[in-house]
Amino acid sequence: MNKIESANQLNTFLGGMVKLAGLKLKYRITVDPPVSDDRDWERPEILVEFAGPDSSLLLERGAELLRSMELLAMETLRLAGNEHEKINFDCMNHRKTRLEELRLSARVAADKVRQSGVPFHFAAMSSRERRMVHLALRDEQDLRTESEGEGMRRSVVLYPKDYKSAPAPTFGRRR
């Protein structure tokens, strides 16, 4: 992926999309943005930040429109699945806020699992958010995480380290 060329393609794509949708938004595209040390869960090569009167529309329903625009942009650039982490869209610091929510949820879930000895099933979430939960819990030596489910219903399950779960059928299962 040529970052400058990709940024130019994104600019063309987003300019048309924002105009045709009638959104009152501005955006800034940054190549190789500075990333703080506590954000080891992502190191984007291109960051697109939105601002403007319609920012709240991007963040409604769990930032559904923002995530959809990001997905369309990735499709436009024809990025392979392993390159999706190279581009991030953000609006009003939504990503940082969501990361803090996920870290807090992970800590609460860890306490519950330790106290009860019973696995904790997180709600279904995107692959990026599942990764954030896995990373938030990676240093918990007495616990383990696994992603379970398929497609839009895929989620993280937090187990006590030595918990024995029932074997799942092997046909059609993601590894």
In short:
The chain is of the alpha+beta class and 175 residues long.
Describe the structure.
With 175 residues, the chain is an alpha+beta fold. 42% of the residues lie in helices and 18% in strands. It contains four helices and six strands, in the order αββαβαβαββ. The strands form two sheets. It has a three-stranded mixed beta sheet with strand order 1-2-3, with helices on one face. The protein has a three-stranded antiparallel beta sheet with strand order 4-6-5. α3 (94-116) crosses α4.
- Strand tally is 6
The global form is elongated
**Could you give the order of strands across the largest sheet?**
1-2-3
Euclidean distance between termini CA atoms: 27 Å
The gyration radius over C-alpha positions equals 18 Å
Strand portion: 15-25%
Q: In terms of quaternary structure, what is this?
A: single chain
Poorly predicted parts: none
Q: How would you characterize the largest beta sheet? A: 3 strands, mixed
The chain-level mean pLDDT equals: 87
Structural class: alpha+beta
Helix-residue proportion: 40-55%
Order of helices and strands: HEEHEHEHEE
Note the total helix count: 4
